[in-house]
Design a protein that fits this description.
- This protein is α+β, with helices and mostly antiparallel strands.
- The protein has 2 domains: about 1-70, no CATH class; about 80-165, no CATH class.
- It is built from 4 helices and 6 strands.
- It has helices spanning about 1-30, 35-50, 55-70, 150-165; strands at about 90, 95-105, 110-115, 125-130, 135, 145.
- The strands form 2 sheets. It has a 3-stranded antiparallel β-sheet, with helices on one face.
- A hairpin with a 4-residue loop joins β4 and β5 (about 135).
- α1 (about 1-30) runs antiparallel to α2 (about 35-50) and α1 runs parallel beside α3 (about 55-70).
- The protein is rod-shaped and about 95 Å long.
- The structure holds zinc ion (ZN).
- Zinc ion binds next to loops.
- Zinc ion binds near residues 118, 120, 138, 141 and 143.
Length: about 170
């Protein structure tokens, strides 16, 4: 009987380690811990009747599981930088609008869909960039705007504003 009891203890110890390592593995991999919990419960249920584990051992196992749940970090929210809200600004008395696009290769945000808005009706216009002149015509009210800065320059100013917190 004594041998059987120590055998149980070894088995219990092994099982506890097993649960612990599975839980740690899940914890590290940030994968759902539910499988671990389910397996633990099944293990507890099985051992409760077959091995007659003591209450303190059960409590210990539960405490370990509880602790692992507690210290499990909350899923990190994808942090968005503040400047992502900076999508319009006036340059040379013309309002420009743009989007921010994440480039996974350069791992940087860059300006996308940069357009000047019509000075009369604020409609997004189509920028024509000739070598000599940059001009734009409003598709809605045909308002013609010329002597615009190039989108390259505007983008440089936007990036500079972000770097200098001028937005
Ligand atoms: Zn217009």
């Amino acid at each position: 009987m004594k041998d059987r009891k120590s055998e149980y203890k070894v088995a219990l110890f092994g099982a506890t380690l097993g649960v612990l390592f599975t839980a740690i593995y899940d914890f590290i991999k940030e994968r759902p811990i539910l499988t671990t919990l389910w397996n633990s419960l099944k293990w507890v249920w099985k051992n409760l009747f077959e091995l007659k584990i003591t209450i303190w051992q059960l409590l210990l196992a539960l405490a370990i599981i509880y602790t692992l749940f507690k210290i499990r970090p909350k899923k990190k929210e994808k942090q968005s930088p503040d400047f992502l809200n900076y999508t319009t600004d006036n340059f040379d008395e013309i309002k420009w609008k743009w989007d921010w696009k994440w480039n996974s290769i350069t791992r940087k945000w860059h300006v996308d869909n940069l357009v000047p808005l019509c000075t009369k009706c604020e409609t997004a216009t189509m920028l024509n960039e000739d070598y000599i002149d940059k001009y734009s015509t409003c598709p809605r009210c045909d308002n013609f705007m010329d002597k615009l800065k190039s989108s390259e320059k505007i983008e440089a100013i936007i990036i500079d504003n972000v770097h200098r917190n001028l937005y």
